[in-house]
Amino acid sequence: MITERNGKTEDPQSAYSVTLDIFNGPLDLLLHLIKKDEVDIYDIPIARITEQYLEYLDFLKKVNLEVVGDYLSMAAELGYIKSRMLLPRIKDEGEEEEQDPREELVRRLLEYERYRDAAAELGGMEILGKDVFLAGYDRKEEFGEPTEETEFVKFDLWALVDTFSKIYSDRKKSETEDIFFSSQTYTVEERKNQLIEIMKREKEVFFEDLFEGDINRMKLVVTFISILELLKDGALDVFQPTFEEPLKIILKQ
What we know:
Elements: E1 3-5, E2 8-10, H1 26-37, H2 46-62, H3 72-86, H4 103-123, H5 139-143, H6 157-174, H7 177-180, H8 188-202, E3 204-206, H9 217-233, E4 236-239, E5 248-251
Antiparallel strand pairs: 1-2, 3-5, 4-5
Helix pairs in contact: 1-4, 2-3, 6-9, 8-9
């Protein structure tokens, strides 16, 4: 919907912004891009990764997430590394070889990944073994070895952003001016309640299906923000059996 304020036409997307602390920071985004492109972390293609990183920031700005500000310093750092990579490395006789401009970034990424994975493993434990420890206690002695092991992909928030950006782009191409100027209004709180009702009926749904009936980009954004807030609140969870399969949203009991 387009609103009037002080005699000026205003896009409703500029009337709100959303701060969510479930985004883990620029290093997390970089790791996602490296994993997504299946590149060697020790030989990061800075030009390509920088371009993709900036595309993510541009998309987050479109949905008015204030989190973008936290990522600008990394964007500047990537630009600086990219410029250094473009300069010829001239080594005079007797001088040591110049350090790879990416070396410090790689060190930080590896360190962050270790702490992130350790925190995820600890957070996934039951209370016994996470918050409570018994000296000399081995759970295998009581329960034995697991009979069947199911491999789950760790949920990556940026994979959710990936999927939504595709939905957003496809809807943007098909959206008509008449629909965009609809007088209908959408609020996050109302949409959260609607999503909870859907999840109570269905228990689990494909992520894309939650946008069914969203007739324009404005409602798409409201639905996406609502899903993120419900994830942050612990009302919903995300499940992905493998990287190739679609994301599923699950109602947490």
